[in-house]
Design goal:
Largest sheet: 6 strands, antiparallel
Helix content: 40-55%
Radius of gyration: 39 Å
Strand content: 5-15%
Shape: elongated
Strand order of the largest sheet: 1-2-3-4-5-6
Distance between the termini: 36 Å
Amino acid sequence: MAEGIIATTQQERLGRSEAVSVDSPADTLRRRLLLGQDLAHGGPASLALRDLQDNEYWQRARHLPPGASGETRWSGDAVLKPTLAEVLQIAARNSREFQQAKDRVFRAALALDLERKEFRTTFTGLLSGLFEDSPNGGSRRYGSQGSADGKASRTFRNGSELSAAIAVDLVRLLNQERSSSLGLVGDASLTVPLLRGAGRLITTEPLRQAERDTVYAIYDFEQFKRQFAVKVATEYLSVLLARGRVANQEENYKSLVASTRRSRRLADSGRLPEYQFDQAVQNELRARESWVQGRFSLERSLDRFKMTLGLPPDARLELVDDELVRLQARAVELTAGIDVADYKGTVPPADAPVTLTEPRGESAGPLELAESAAVRQALDCRPDLRVAAERVEDAQREIMVAADNLRAELTLLGKVSVGESRSPGSANSPNASWGAETTSTSALLTMDLPFERTRERNAYRDSLIRLEQSVRDYQAAEDDIKLQVRDDLRSLMQAREGVFNQSQAVRLAEKRVRSTDMFLQAGRAAIRDLLEAQDALLSAQNSLISALVSYRTAEWDIQRDMGKLEVTVDGIWQEYSPERAP
């Protein structure tokens, strides 16, 4: 039932539906890694729900439905080497945070199903048997009674309640006379509220709110999927960034070792002062310290990333560099023919007026949209803003219900019954008749005057305050979205300018290292000059990688904050491309 509610609500609100399952899969990647890679674990609960042993409280065959097959692409005994797209799918299937988000949607659907039950026809049945021993003059009377009761009831959406019941009694004396009698009774009653609690809007408000809560859960899940996908992708790039920095630090360390060896030979030949050799050794030691720290920092960030995916931190996993390689290729495209500091041609005098160049717009990426257009799309597409808007209507309906509670309560009750019941004391009576002579009707009109409504008055005033608060919450959500989009656009431009700056800085630093090394060998430069050039190259290389990663994550951020990043429940995402937009 909950699955159908979710699918229907998704189709109505999103124009599409996807299965949101909370059932435990028959196998998980985490389980296969723990077993296949022989990783330490505490017990069956470390593996999966289906590995829990049966006991007096829990039986798998009884309490668990057949599990759907988990992902079979990855074997547990091999080193995982996923791409970015594969990482997103692994996270959607294994992350505990993702599974909890699905649970919230499912629970909202269960609550809605329970509210819908209030307006269904419900049936109850009762079978009973009675043995009676009672005095009868100077003797004892023994009798038995068997009864069957059936009842049907329904609450209508205008507030009326209808119930109908039928009862059959069979009584028999167990003394020598063996008398018996059959009783048959039917009755029906109708309750109609006329003032307080009357009307479709008031009666169905709990159901309507449960429907809205399900919608909100689905909207929240849509926003969560985007946020979670960007979070995973950002952490993925952060690990690649850390690995790229370690690679740069390793190359810098090797270069400094080579420079130290060269300075040692130059010092031995008398061409270099001894203190400059000592300076080279000091720089080599600092480079080693940075390299060691970088390696351990990389391992820590990789372990944290595994935890984000829902995998054991000691699992063997290596990330593929494809995304970083594409970023580096993209940097070449972005910076082609662009020099931020251009001193080719005639250079103005030093005392000439300086005119600063504003950040360039001609090399903007496809997601660097006009601010007004990006904000408008975000306001149209963000599901959390829709939730904030609909909560204003929720607060308005709450005022309606609170105002209704201030009214007098006027209720009409009608009842009709036919037939007669039997007990062991009436076993000698003939069978009950079913006709007009045994039919009785009654009507009752009650009115509860609103003399004391302090609690209801305060609730009404509180509902007005909550409406004001919901309006302010909507305004705050709208302003937050505008701020997020504006910040995202600024981050995109800032990161792009960083790519321009650091690309040129890397080229200049490489040129500086080569020329300084040549001057050192020619005796026209000190070792300090080469060491400074190598430090500048390392800094520029790391800054370039950071700028590339910042630009890519800013692209994901703007898609998320505009509500344009499509992510499925299986972790497959479709990035937004303005060229494909209608």
